[in-house]
Amino acid sequence: MILRLAIASLFARALTVGMTILAIALSVALFLSVEKVRTGAKASFADTISGTDLIVGARSGSVQLLLYSVFRIGNATNNVTWQSYQDIAARPEVDWIVPISLGDSHRQFRVMGTTQAFFEHYKYRQGRSLEMADGLIMDDLFDTVIGADVAATLNYRVGDPIVVAHGLASFSEHKDQPFRVSGILRKTGTPVDRTVIVSMEAIEAIHVDWQGGAQVQGQATPVDVIREMDLKPSAITAALVGVKSPLQTFRLQRAINEYSQEPLLAILPGVALQELWSIVGIAETALLAVSFMVVVTALIGMMATIFSSLNERRREMAIFRAMGARPMTILSMLVLEAMLMAALGALLGLALLYLGLFIAQPILDSAFGLWLTIDPPSLREVWVMLAVIAAGAIVSMVPALRAYRMSVADGMIVKT
Amino acid sequence: MTDAVLQLSDVEFRWMGQAGFSLRVPNLSVGKGESVLLLGESGSGKSTLLSLICGTILPTSGVVQIAGQDITKLSGGKRDRFRAEQIGVIFQQFNLLPFGTVGDNILLPLRFAPARRKRAKDATAQASNLCSALGLPSGVFNTKATALSVGQQQRVAVARALIGQPPLIIADEPTSALDANSQAAFLDLLFAQTAAHDTSLLMVSHDPRLGERFDRVIRMEDIAQIERGTP
């Protein structure tokens, strides 16, 4: 009966109570969505590459190597010679090795030269392989396989011709050697979606007439001639390596890092990802702290609402007292009321989160390549909601204690 | 008086923070089934006296006995429970929780008084009966309290005071918000019900014209002294 009366009392003040609940709901939705984006970003971050034991590149920083080789962010400061690549490939620990050659672009997307082995060995999200959504892996020298985002953004279909630009954000294009889209990859939620993949030989082919970053004046080797040429690459940007046994990973890593012919760097992708995340993680903590403060603000807003309602509810409290309610009952009723508001706010917040997820999921995916999964509430989210309800109860103790003192002082003398 | 429902003896109450300001009630008693009108001007200490009787404040000294129990000996929580069990209270006006239904309001004291709830047996049925006995429209039980007229609200307050037959009803100027005709009708109903349940009634008013309908009329100045200390 007390619960029913508390609910009825809340309904009687529907407007202010509704506003309070909405404020709590929005703050909870914000907090949960920040949490969701945070865990989603972390997961999609960690899922970018799996199954690769080592990434090898020119000696720089491990985060830098990870950024340009996997995330296609920034540029390599140096290359790895083809000779070094073959030396590593020949080592007994190596199970497979995939070369990567970066540096050119198509529109806003990076072009990556690699071998067929890339499609076989590149794994993401706990060992998932790349799959073709349409077409086939490149077969001809001027074939290209494009990521899902490339196809969607530029509206490409299998068979469409594309021209690769030299360098990044460049105006000079390899117009003489147009490519043909031979296949489109299925969406992965990794940087592969935003990559134009060609063969290692193709990278060499389009640079036949280029020297020192510029096209040689007047030189335009016909495509037929290029096809006949030996297109063995002279250098690569990086290589993904799989070892035969996990136990050999560290041995191979040390061997590569101590390679005497060329300064090289071999990194463990997982360790580098952790290192990178610890840099990004500061912003993440700051974001979480801000959204936490928003929840606190909303709860303090609720406290203010209860406070301001106390005076007009003195009569109500006097009636309860006259009917035999203890001051403690009055206190509990106010706390119960606050908990109801906080619970409704938390539930509404959760509903808002899911609504937001349904709306934002495709937008975040296409804009940032961030795929947020829509799952039932996690245990962590349930805990957050319970914590909000508990915090609501604690915060409401302040006005509730005041009501307690008021009801002791007023007794059943009704003050209007 | 052995069958007194209410007995105050040598009660003294000092207001906190106001030195030398005190209310003394040497003797006040209300017998079983008796109706007593307590007349007093505002500022005569009526409200304080009612709070003492209901146990929401404690006297500095003296005995407040209700149905044989000295409530000054009880702890705060027990006094609240005792009030719920033994006393029905009717205020001047705004008696009801505006967000509750008529039924919620009538049954509210039973929530805090298990023995009284037991006495009421089928509480909802008794509440309905009281409603019809008090001339409230049928089907009023589930109506929001605020939908009723002031006169109807006062009658609901009577039903609430009477449910579960507490031995004592305290009414604090229950007719002051009513016009003359409604006053008479209200008192008819109230007396009929208190007589039917053999309930004692202590009603406070400043209107001496009501006196002829009561068994006994007492004046605040005759039973209580207020001492005003020098500032």
What features would you describe in this structure?
In chain A, a hairpin with a 2-residue loop joins β12 and β13. Chain A starts with a helix and ends in a 6-residue tail after the last helix. Chain A has helices at 2-12, 14-46, 62-69, 82-89, 117-121, 148-154, 200-206, 223-228, 249-257, 269-312, 314-322, 327-368, 379-410; strands at residues 54-58, 80-81, 94-106, 109-114, 123-124, 128-129, 132-135, 143-146, 161-162, 179-185, 195-199, 210-211, 214-215, 235-236, 238-243, 264-267. In chain A, the strands form 4 sheets. In chain A, strands 1, 3, 4, 7, 8, 9, 10, 11, 15 and 16 form a 10-stranded mixed β-sheet that branches. Chain A has a two-stranded antiparallel sheet with strand order 2-14. A two-stranded antiparallel sheet of chain A has the order 5-6. Chain A folds into 2 domains: 2-45 and 282-412, no CATH class; 54-130 and 197-267, no CATH class. Chain A has 416 residues and is an alpha+beta fold. Chain A is 53% helix and 16% strand. The model of chain A has no long low-confidence stretch (mean pLDDT 87). Chain B is an alpha/beta fold and 231 residues long. Chain B has one domain (4-228): Rossmann fold. Chain B has 8 helices and 10 strands. Chain B has a 5-stranded antiparallel β-sheet. A 5-stranded parallel β-sheet of chain B has the order 6-7-8-3-9, sandwiched between helices. The longest helix of chain B has 18 residues, at 180-197. Chain B is globular, with a radius of gyration of 17 Å. The mean pLDDT of chain B is 86. The interface between A and B is medium-sized, with 26 and 31 residues.
